[in-house]
Amino acid sequence: MNPVVVSASLILYLIAICQGSGTDIALDAKATLLHRIDSLNLLIYTCLLTLTVLTIWVFKHRRVSWLHETGLAVIYGLIVGAIIRYAGSTNQVTYIDAHPDADTKYNLSVPPDIVRFHFPDKIQISSGEAPVPNKTYAYSFRGEIVNVEQNEIDLKATFDPEIFFNIILPPIIFHAGYCLKRKYFFRNLGAILTFAMVGTALSALVIGSLMYGCVQLMPASLAASFTFLDTLYFGALISPTDPLTVLAIFSQLKVDVNLYAMIFGESVLNDAVALVLSGAIQNYEKRYSVDGGFEITAFLAAIGDFIGIFSLSLLVGALIGCLTALMTKFTHVRDWPLLESALFVLTSYGAFLIAEVFELTGVVAVLFCGICQAHYTYNNLSADSRNRTKQLFELLNFLAENFIFTYIGVSMFTFPKHHFDPWFIIAGFLTSMLGRAVNIYPLSFLLNLGRKPPIPMNFQHMLFFSGLRGAMSFALAIRNTVSEARQAMLTTTSLIVIATVVLQGGAATHALAYLRIPTGQGQNDENEALPYRDVRSNGRMVVKWGKGENEVVMPWQLNSFEDTPHGNGDGGGEKARLARLWGAVDSKLLKPLLTHARPPLTETLPAFLRPLGRILTTTRQYTQSENSLRRTDSDSDLCIDEPQPVPTTIDPQLPYNIRNGYGNV
Amino acid sequence: MNPVVVSASLILYLIAICQGSGTDIALDAKATLLHRIDSLNLLIYTCLLTLTVLTIWVFKHRRVSWLHETGLAVIYGLIVGAIIRYAGSTNQVTYIDAHPDADTKYNLSVPPDIVRFHFPDKIQISSGEAPVPNKTYAYSFRGEIVNVEQNEIDLKATFDPEIFFNIILPPIIFHAGYCLKRKYFFRNLGAILTFAMVGTALSALVIGSLMYGCVQLMPASLAASFTFLDTLYFGALISPTDPLTVLAIFSQLKVDVNLYAMIFGESVLNDAVALVLSGAIQNYEKRYSVDGGFEITAFLAAIGDFIGIFSLSLLVGALIGCLTALMTKFTHVRDWPLLESALFVLTSYGAFLIAEVFELTGVVAVLFCGICQAHYTYNNLSADSRNRTKQLFELLNFLAENFIFTYIGVSMFTFPKHHFDPWFIIAGFLTSMLGRAVNIYPLSFLLNLGRKPPIPMNFQHMLFFSGLRGAMSFALAIRNTVSEARQAMLTTTSLIVIATVVLQGGAATHALAYLRIPTGQGQNDENEALPYRDVRSNGRMVVKWGKGENEVVMPWQLNSFEDTPHGNGDGGGEKARLARLWGAVDSKLLKPLLTHARPPLTETLPAFLRPLGRILTTTRQYTQSENSLRRTDSDSDLCIDEPQPVPTTIDPQLPYNIRNGYGNV
Questions:
Q1: Is B150 in CB contact (< 8 Å) with chain A?
Q2: In chain B, positions 457-516, which contact chain A (CB-CB < 8 Å)?
Q3: How many beta carbons lie within 10 A of that of residue A577, not counting itself?
Q4: Which are the contacts of A537, defined by CB distance < 8 A and separation ≥ 6?
Q5: Over the stretch A89-104, which tens digit does the pLDDT of each residue have?
Q6: Which residues on A lie below 8 Å from B343 (Cβ)?
Q7: Cα–Cα distance between B336 and B585 in angstroms, integer?
Q8: How many CA atoms lie within 13 A of A596 on its CB side?
Q9: Cys-Cys link to B337, which of A65, B216, B222, B384 (CB 3.0-4.6 A)?
C-alpha cells in the first residue's frame, strides 16, 4: 500500500518471478505479495496505535496536559507519513490501456462491471523466457480516471474512503449516542438543537459564501475550478465539530454539566446534520447539473431531501432501538448474557445496514439507535451485558478514534491527491473560525432571549473555542477527490483538523482557566433528575455502578445521594417546554412499554386501552419495588458520564486539584 | 451480492439510468446500487444471526438438546440460501471482452494491476439517447477466468474467501488459545501433540491415498481431473476437527476434564497443523509443478516448509505474547484499563499481521500468542482488563463462529462454484470417517503403551465421535475453487461439515450416555494444579472470579478449595516428562520474568545472573504475599473454563441432573 512498501517488496516480487518458471507462479507470487503489502500496511497502523497507547500512558502518568491523545495520534501519523513519503518512491502500479472488442454485443451506456482482459494477446513481451501463454483475466470496475496524462492511478496507496463511513464512524457515533448525557441533554435540548441544526446550516452557508467570495478574488485558474456548490459543500463538511479533546479535559476537571451537555450534544448532532447536509448538496448538484447558480425548485428539493433523509434515518434508528428494547423486555434472553450482548450488537449494526439499504444515512440511524438503546434497552439488560456492551463500545470507540487521527496524519503525506493552495488554505482557516463564531454568538443571543438562566458570555467563548474539527470533516473531505477543487478541500480540511486538534486541544485547559469557567463542580448536580423521572418518588436515589451484586459506589457518588425531585436553584425553570412534553410521553408511555419501569401501562393508559396495557406489562413491572426501579434508572443515566479511570494510587481529591497543576505547565 | 438482490435492484438501477441524463449520473447510481447491495447482503447475515441468537435462547430456555447452536446456524443458512437461490435469477454481472493496445510499452509476463479501459470507444451503443462520451475507467485485477465459455463471472455472489483467514478465523483461534485449559492441557500434552501433529498428518495421508484410489475407480472424466496432490490436499483440509458442539455439551455436563482437555487441545492444534500442512502441499505443487508423482527432494522440502513455517509462526506468536507481558509488567498501564485493553488487542492482532508479513501463518501465530497472553499477560492485567478482554473475545468468537456456520449453509446454495459429484461425496464421507479412526485408535494404542492410566476404550470412541468438521475445513476448501476438482472438494467439505455438525453434534449427549462416560464430574478436579505451580505452597487456594474487589465465588467452586499439591489418584503419574521439564522452566524463569509471580528471579537464577534478575524483578514481586499470588494465578487458570452461563432462576444442581433430562428427549 505504502510507496516504501511497494518499492521494497517489488524486489521480492521480481525475485519470485525469476524463481518461478510460468505465469501461474508469478501470479501466485503477485497475489501473495499484495496480501503481504496489505498486512504490512495494517501492521504499520497497529504499531502506530500501540505506540500512541503507550505514549498516552506516559502522558497520563506524568500528567502532561499540553498535548492530548488525539493530538498525539495525529503527530505520530505525520511523522510516519513523512518517513514513508520520503523513504520510498511512488507509483509502482502497473497498467495497460485497453479497448473493447468492436464486435461485442454490449449495449448499456455505463461501463461494464467486469472487463475480461486477454493477455498478453498482441503485446510483445521481450523477456528471454518462453512465450507467455494467452489467458483471460477478470478486472473489476474501480472508477473513472479523470486525468489520463497524470498517470495518477495510485489506487492502492491508501484505504478506500468508504471504510470510514462503513467501519470507522459507526462505532464512534454509536458510542456517542450510547453515552449521551441524557438528563442534561434533554434539559438543554433547545440550545443543542439550535446550535446543531440551525447553527450548522448557518455556518455552512456563511463559510460557503465567504469562500466563494475569496475564491473569486484569487488567481483565475483557481476561481474557475470552484463553483458555489463546491464551496457550499466545503462549508458543510468543515462545520461539524469534534470536541473529543475538550470533553476529555472537561470530564477530568468536572466542568459545569450544562456546558458539557451543550458541547457534547451539539458535536454529536452536528456530525449527523453535516453528513445529511453534504448529501443533500451533492444530490442537488447531481440532480440538476446546473452551473452553480440557484434554482428555486432544486433548492427546495434539497431542503426536502435534508429533512426527509434526516428524519427517516432517525426513525429507523429509533425503531430498531425500541425493537431491541422489546426483545430484551419480553424474552428471558438476559439469563444468557452472551446471547444478550450478541443480540444488542447485531441489532445496533442492523440499524446502520437497514438505513444504508434504503439509501438513508446509516450514521444518523446508528446515533439515534444508540440513544434509544441507552435510554430503554440498557435498563432491561443483565448487569453482565451492561458492562460488556459499555466496555466493548468504549474500546471500539477508542481504537477507531485513534486510528482515524493517525490516518489523518499519515495521509497528509501519503495520500496522492492532495493539492496545496496557500490562498485556499488561509481562507479556509479564517472562514471556518468565522463560521463557528456565526454559529455560536448570534444564536446564543437569540436563545438567551427565551432562556431563564442565559448562556453566560464565558460559556459562549468556550463553545466557540470547542469548535475543533475532526473525524467527520476528514471523512467527508476524503470521500471524493476527483477534481482539483475537491483535492484542495481535502488538504485544507486535513490541515484545519490537525491544527485545531493539536493547538486548540492542547490549549483547552488554559482556555478554561482564562475564561474563569468554574471547574471541580459538584458531581452532586449529576444525579439531579428531570421532573418526569421523579414525579412519583421523593426517596433517596442509590447510585450503583458495575455488575449486579457487585456494584461499586464510586467515591464521587457518595455525596450525591440527596435527590432533588424538582430541580434546585437554576435547574428548575431552565428546561425547555419540548423536554417537558417529551418527558411526559416518555415516562407514561415509552418507558413502561419498553422497559420494566414503573408506573406500568395499566396505570398510565386511558381506560379503554387498559387491556392492551395489561398484555404489555411484565410481572416484574408489577412486583418490583419503587426502589429497584430508581436504581436501574439512575444506573442507566450513569452510563453516560463514565468517570475517567482514576489511577488507584492517586488521591481521590485529585480531580479537584488538577486544574492548578495544569495551570502551572 | 445475492442473485435475488441483484435482479431486484437491477430494476431500481435501470430506473435510475432512465431518470438521469448522463453517464456520470448513471455511474453514481451504479456505485450507490453496489453499496446498497453490499449492505443488503450484510443485513441478511445480520438478520440470520439475530434469528439464530433468539432461537438459541428459546432452545436453551426449553432445554432442547437434539440440536446445537452451530447446527441451528447451519440450518437457518441452508433455508435462506435456498430461498435466495430459487427466488431470483443469477448472473446479472455485465462484462465486455477487451484486448490490450498493440503499441503499449508494457513488458512484464504477468498481467497489469490496473487496466485503463476506454469506453465506449468503438462500441455502438444503440440507445435512443445522446452518444455516450468517451471516457477512461480504471479496472483492477481480480483473477484468472479459467472457463471463458461458461460465463461464470459471478465474482460478486459471495464474500472474498480471504475474509475467512484474515477476519473470521483469527478471533476464533485467538479465543481458543486464550481459553485453553492450560493445566490439563499440559498434563495431557503428549497425547494432544500426538493426536494433533502425527494424527493429523496420518489422517491427511490416509484420506488422500484412499481418495486417490476411489477416484481412480470412478468414471474416467473424474479420475483425470484429480492428481494425487489434489486428494492429499483434500485429506489435509478435511482432517482438522472442530468440536464446538461437543465441547459445549461437555462443559454443560461436566465431563471428565482429561477427556475435555484432549478433545479441546487436539482440535485447537490440529487446525493450525492442517493449515500449515495444506500450505506445504500447495507449495510443493507450486514449486515443482510435477504431474502428481513424488520427488524425494520436493517431498523433503515440503516437510521442511511445514516444520519451518509452523515453528516460526509459533515463535512469532509466543514472542509477541511475552512482549505484551513485559509491557504490562514494567509499565503502570494497568492504572488505565482502557489503554491496557487496547494495548492487549493491538499486540494480539499485531502477532497475526507480523506473521502474515513474513509469509508465515498468522492463524498459528495468533493461537500461540493467545496461549502466552493467557499464561503470562493475563496475570499482569488489571481486573477490569481481564474481564473486558475475556468478554470481548468471547463475544467476537461467538459472532464469528455463528457467522461462519451460517455462511456455510447459505453458500451451499448461492456459491456459484459448487460441483456435485455423488461418488466423490460418498467417498469423502467414508474416508473422512476412516481417517479419523486411523488418527485415534492406533495412536491411542501406542500412547497407552507409555501412559500410566491408559486412555480407556470409551474415551477413544468419544474422541472418534468428536471428529466434527468445521470452520477451518470450510475456509481451506473455499479458498481455491478454480478447477473442477477443487469445486468437488468444496461441495464435499461443505456437506461433511453440515452433516457432522447437525447430526453428530445433536447426538453427542446420547453418545456420552451410550459410552457410559462419567459426567457431572466434580469441578473439584478443576483446581488441582500442576506440581510446578504448587511447589512452594500447601495453603488453601482461594478461587476468585470477576473484577478486583468484587469477586464472586461461583457455587461450584465452593467444594474446590481443597488444594492437592501433587495431584491425587490418577493425576499424579500421568503427566508427561515434557510437561515436567516445561513446568520447571516456566515456574523458575518465565513466570517470574514475565509476570509478578513469585519466586522472583533473584531466587531462581544462578548466582552470576542475580544482578540481572534484580533489575527484572518488580517491587510488587518482592512485597506481595504468597496468597495474593495464588489468587492471581488460579484466576488466570479459570479464564479457561468459564462456566456456561447458568440462568439465575435455575437450581444450581441442574448441571448434575441435566443429563437425565437430555436422555429423555
A1: no
A2: none
A3: 10
A4: A563, A565, A626, A630
A5: 544 667 777 877 777 7
A6: 50, 53-54
A7: 32
A8: 28
A9: B384
